[in-house]
């Protein structure tokens, strides 16, 4: 099962050649993740405004084809793994076309849950509500 976010590419996301600038794929991963939190675990957003921090420790994207202005992109996010304090999310980037969908890119992002202390951040468990919300999206 995937969490899906649909996006229409705009000119501001393209470069002089006309294709999507590669860094936007990474931005879209973050947006998809944040919208998942808003929709499924808004209480975690409250924690993020206090002492919880979700630190991105690794991010990657493998590109298979280019995207252009006004392409419709479907980002499909699933959980790759969940440990005591870290989550790995997997992303498929699909271009929606009249005849179906084309896989454009594949990405991965790892986040570590941390708590803000007075002088440093310390590892924290993945919030229970977030863990439970991600379980249906855990890849096998």
Briefly summarize what is shown.
By secondary structure, the protein is of the alpha+beta class. Helices cover about 25% and strands about 45% of the residues. The protein has helices at about 25-40, 40-50, 130-135; strands spanning about 5-10, 50-65, 70-80, 85-95, 100-115, 120-125.
Explain this structure to me?
Strands 1, 2, 3, 4, 5 and 6 form a 6-stranded antiparallel β-sheet that branches. The radius of gyration is 16 Å and the shape is globular. A hairpin with a 2-residue loop joins strand 4 and strand 5 (100-116). With 140 residues, the protein is α+β, with helices and mostly antiparallel strands. Helix 1 packs across helix 2 (42-48). The protein is built from 3 helices and 6 strands. The protein is 23% helix and 44% strand. This is Thioesterase. It comes from Thioploca ingrica. InterPro entries: HotDog_dom_sf.
Low-confidence stretches: none
Could you please say which CATH topology applies here?
Thiol Ester Dehydrase, Chain A
Tally of helical runs: 3
Whole-number mean pLDDT:
94
Number of strands: 6
CATH architecture: Roll
Q: Could you say which structural class the secondary elements and strand pairing correspond to?
A: alpha+beta
SSE series: EHHEEEEEH
Report, as a whole number of angstroms, the end-to-end distance: 10 Å
The major beta sheet can be summarized as: 6 strands, antiparallel
Q: What is the CATH domain class?
A: Alpha Beta
Q: What's the number of structural domains? A: 1
Alpha-carbon Rg, integer = 16 Å
- Silhouette: globular
Structural topology:
Blueprint lengths: L2 E6 L14 H18 L1 H7 L3 E12 L8 E11 L3 E12 L2 E17 L4 E3 L4 H7 L6
Antiparallel strand pairs: 1-3, 2-5, 3-4, 4-5, 5-6
Helix pairs in contact: 1-2
């Amino acid at each position: 099962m995937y969490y899906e976010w649909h996006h229409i590419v705009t000119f501001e996301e393209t470069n002089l050649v006309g294709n999507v600038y590669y860094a936007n794929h990474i931005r879209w991963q973050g947006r998809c993740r944040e919208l998942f939190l808003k929709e499924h675990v808004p209480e975690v957003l409250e924690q993020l405004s206090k002492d919880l921090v979700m630190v991105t420790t690794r991010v990657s994207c493998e590109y298979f084809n280019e995207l252009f202005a006004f392409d419709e992109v479907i980002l499909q996010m699933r959980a790759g793994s969940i440990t005591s304090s870290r989550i790995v999310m997997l992303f498929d980037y699909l271009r929606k076309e009249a005849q179906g969908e084309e896989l454009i890119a594949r990405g991965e992002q790892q986040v570590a849950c941390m708590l803000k202390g007075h002088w440093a951040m310390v590892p924290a468990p993945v919030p229970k509500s977030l863990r439970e919300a991600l379980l249906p999206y855990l890849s096998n």
